[in-house]
Write a structure and sequence with these properties.
The complex is a heterodimer of chains A (347) and B (278).
Chain A: E1 3-10, E2 12-13, E3 16-17, H1 20-42, E4 45-54, H2 58-66, E5 71-76, H3 85-99, E6 103-107, H4 110-123, E7 127-131, E8 133-137, E9 146-153, E10 158-164, E11 170-174, E12 191-194, E13 207-212, E14 226-230, H5 239-249, E15 253-256, H6 258-262, E16 283-287, H7 293-299, E17 304-309, E18 322-325, H8 328-346
Chain B: E1 2-7, E2 10-12, E3 18-19, E4 26-27, E5 33-35, H1 37-53, E6 55-62, H2 68-76, E7 81-85, H3 95-112, E8 117-121, H4 132-140, E9 144-155, E10 160-166, E11 171-177, E12 180-184, H5 196-204, E13 208-210, E14 230-236, E15 245-248, H6 249-252, H7 254-267, H8 270-275
Parallel strand pairs in B: 1-6, 1-8, 6-7, 7-13, 8-12, 9-12
Antiparallel strand pairs in B: 2-5, 3-4, 9-10, 10-11
Helix pairs in contact in B: 2-5, 3-4
The chains are: A alpha/beta (347), B alpha/beta (278).
Bound molecules: flavin-adenine dinucleotide and adenosine monophosphate (AMP).
Flavin-adenine dinucleotide sits between chains A (155, 231-233, 257-259, 271-276, 288-290, 292, 294-295, 298, 308-311, 314, 327-329) and B (14-15, 17).
């Protein structure tokens, strides 16, 4: 009997977990379920497991059980208090060699991207970055189902499905918000296993002298419930006032297409799309955005999309739940008026 | 003397990529090839420190002979030595195989003429993987600082470097021992105008071409397709989602169009969820 392990790196910084970790536990469970029939037939066991590095982070390990991990390997040590490439990758490579996971998923965050390439190289295995679809599929010539990792290629115009036939683990990174958050269970049955920490401060190879926090705005559009997004159709930076007004009214934040960031109208943190953020708010309003593929991949998983564009053939309408063909400078003020009226009747 | 190495890649200018709507294939004609923008900024920073401290900058690139123009461009931007690693057998390399080749070349350059800093771009814009830099650092057992936005200080005597790196939540100031590998954001340096002598030199410059056997021998099991654990299994166009309802403000009037749209949002339960009502 073998154990087929589906691993997720549980990412945390300063004791705060990155929610992509929970999204990935959901994905790992989905993948594990896809191999369950063939595993049962072969008498194999299938488990979903998290790996957590940090200092005094046991509560996060417990939380990982609530998001579906059967087991969490915990490496708790002062050397992991702040993220550094060397001790982290060496430790992950060590635990992966010891337990031999079949699949290993990491978030494609700044931290995750710094780490994933190093871990894959240390293990001499394949890594597919920024996957947007994952499945365990039957592949000709393979005895077991393999990870089919699909990602955009060539500027998002083509989707490529990548296989890692022989080497293990099959590694993928996934951006936050590409997959939904799984249900949280309050009475988990999984276990936490403490692993021995072999790296030392001397081997860390880097010393963080200082953390500088940016002054002023720190937007996090990835986890916003409402995004009011504008594109080149705004015509001038003044259009932002309208977007902001509508966003404030709806308790949301402002997003943009890439040209507005390139033009220096607003910071990169607001950019939605393939080279910006992936978002999945409850409500996404796209105004004056044509709907290029590279923009759509970043927002098409939103629960409800309203598109405003004066070109009836704009591709953004293909992903919209409702499209308003019209001038945004007329539509948004009207929308503001009606929403305010709705709020008043509700109150 | 300061010695820096910069890994540069030639990429198609993805802002110009088009798909043939009939065939769904990539239109390659007329897509200009450029130096990966992040690598160009990394190179500018390496040259800046060379001018400040005295020393030299070596650039390396792995790719077909057409990459020579990109190496010449690097000479124009102030590099002193250019190496092109080019052999049919390297074709089809994924990031693991690429990192193997680059690491072996960097180790060889370092053995001849010790390196202080190794610059990589944050990522190559054709694949956006950001994997090769960390992979090379692991193979060379060297410290790495990713997302570098500023090199604050290089201490050649004390053998340390202080670098600022930008993460999602803050900027970190990191000290590492030399040699260190950096992967750079565009903010690391502005690309300066090339001085005339560099421009002239670049026109006639012929890079060294390294093959699979010369001047160092690469393990054929670790290069090209054989050395790449990942393969492309399928290519396809992204699936088309189902379009929703469209209302025309010009035909219906803005007021009616908007109320219809909000009504649909209301009925799907979104609006009340968002407005926090019942
Ligand atoms: C590798 C790569 C990565 C990329 N990454 C991203 C990314 O992350 N995010 C991103 O957004 N883009 C990205 N792009 C760029 C993308 O291809 C498009 O160029 C971009 O999204 C277009 O932005 P836009 O819709 O604002 O502008 P446009 O395409 O110019 O569209 C403007 C729209 O506004 C409409 N309009 C004009 N005036 C009005 C008005 N008064 N009222 C209503 N509508 C009006 C027009 O009909 C038009 O549809 C990327 C491209 C590449 C090659
Ligand atoms: N073929 C190559 N030749 C030289 N440098 C490369 C090559 N491929 C990648 N690089 C370097 O690795 C960085 C990251 O590339 P990637 O991991 O492909 O996103 C680039 O910015 C380059 O500095």
């Amino acid at each position: 009997m073998a154990i087929r392990r589906f691993w997720v790196f549980i990412e945390q910084e300063a004791g705060k977990v990155h929610p992509v970790s929970w999204e990935l536990l959901g994905v790992a469970r989905m993948l594990a379920n896809q191999v369950l029939p063939e595993a049962e037939a072969a008498g194999d066991q299938v488990t979903v497991e998290g790996v957590l590095l940090g200092y005094q982070v046991e509560p996060i390990a417990k939380e990982a059980l609530c998001y579906g991990a059967d087991r969490v390997y915990l490496l708790d040590d002062p050397v992991f208090e702040h993220y550094r490439n060397c001790p982290y990758y060496q430790t992950l490579a060590y635990v992966a060699r010891k337990h031999e996971p079949e699949v290993f998923l990491m978030g494609a965050t700044t931290l995750g991207r710094d780490l994933a390439g190093a871990v894959a190289t240390a293990l001499g295995t394949g890594l597919t970055a920024d996957c947007t679809q994952l499945a365990m599929g039957e592949v000709k010539g393979a005895k077991q189902r393999l990870l089919l990792a699909t990602r955009p290629a060539f500027g998002g115009n083509i989707m490529a499905t990548i296989l890692c036939r022989q080497h293990r683990p099959q590694m993928s990174s996934v951006r936050p918000r590409v997959f939904p958050m799984p249900e949280r269970i309050s009475e988990p049955t999984g276990e936490i296993l403490k692993e021995e920490v072999l790296v030392t401060e001397e081997g860390a190879k880097a010393c963080i002298l200082e953390f500088v926090h940016a002054k002023g705005e720190s937007v996090n559009i990835e986890y916003a419930d409402v995004i009011v997004a504008g594109g080149r159709g705004l015509g001038s930076p003044e259009g932002f006032k309208l977007l902001e007004e509508l966003a404030t009214e709806l308790g949301g934040v402002v997003g943009v297409s890439r040209p507005l960031v390139d033009a220096g109208w607003i910071s990169y943190a607001h950019q939605v799309g393939q080279s910006g953020r992936t978002v999945r708010p409850k409500l996404y309003i796209a105004a004056g955005i044509s709907g290029a593929l590279q923009h759509k991949v970043g927002m098409q998983n939103s629960d409800f999309i309203i598109a405003i564009n004066n070109d009836p053939d704009a591709p953004i309408f293909d992903v919209a739940d409702v499209g308003i063909v019209g001038d945004l400078y007329q539509v948004i003020p009207e929308m503001l008026k009606q929403i305010r009226a709705l709020k008043e009747t509700a109150a | 003397m300061f010695h820096a190495l910069v890994a540069i890649k030639q990429v198609p200018d993805t802002t110009n990529i088009r798909i043939d709507p009939e065939t769904g294939n990539l239109v390659r004609e007329g897509v200009p090839a450029i130096m990966n923008p992040y690598d160009a900024h990394a190179l500018a920073e390496a040259v800046h420190w060379k001018r400040k401290l005295g020393g030299k900058v070596t650039v390396v690139s792995m790719g077909p002979p057409s990459f020579i123009v990109t190496i010449r461009e690097a000479i124009e931007l102030g590099a002193d030595r250019g190496i092109l690693i080019s052999d049919r057998k390297f074709a089809g390399a994924d990031t693991l195989a690429t990192s193997y080749v680059l690491a072996a070349v960097i180790a060889e350059v370092h053995a001849e003429d010790p390196l202080d800093l190794i610059f990589f771009g944050k990522q190559a814009i054709d694949g956006d993987t950001a994997q090769v830099g960390p992979g090379v650092a692991v193979r060379l057992d060297m410290p790495i600082v990713t997302y570098a936005v500023k090199v604050r200080d290089i201490d050649l005597q004390g053998r340390t470097v202080v670098v600022e790196r930008k993460t999602e939540r803050w900027t970190e100031v990191v000290e590492t021992p030399l040699p260190t590998l950096l992967t750079c954001e565009k903010e690391i340096a502005e690309i300066p105008f090339a001085p005339l002598p560099d421009l002239i030199r670049s026109l006639r410059y012929d890079p060294e071409i390294w093959s699979r056997e010369e001047p160092i021998e690469f393990d054929s099991g670790q290069i090209g397709v054989r050395g790449s654990p990942t393969i492309v299994y399928k290519m396809g166009t992204p699936p088309l989602p189902e379009a929703g309802e469209k209302v025309n403000a010009r035909e219906l009037g803005v007021g009616t169009a908007v109320s219809h749209a909000l009504d649909l949002a209301q009925r799907s339960g979104i609006l009340s969820a968002v407005l926090g009502g019942e």
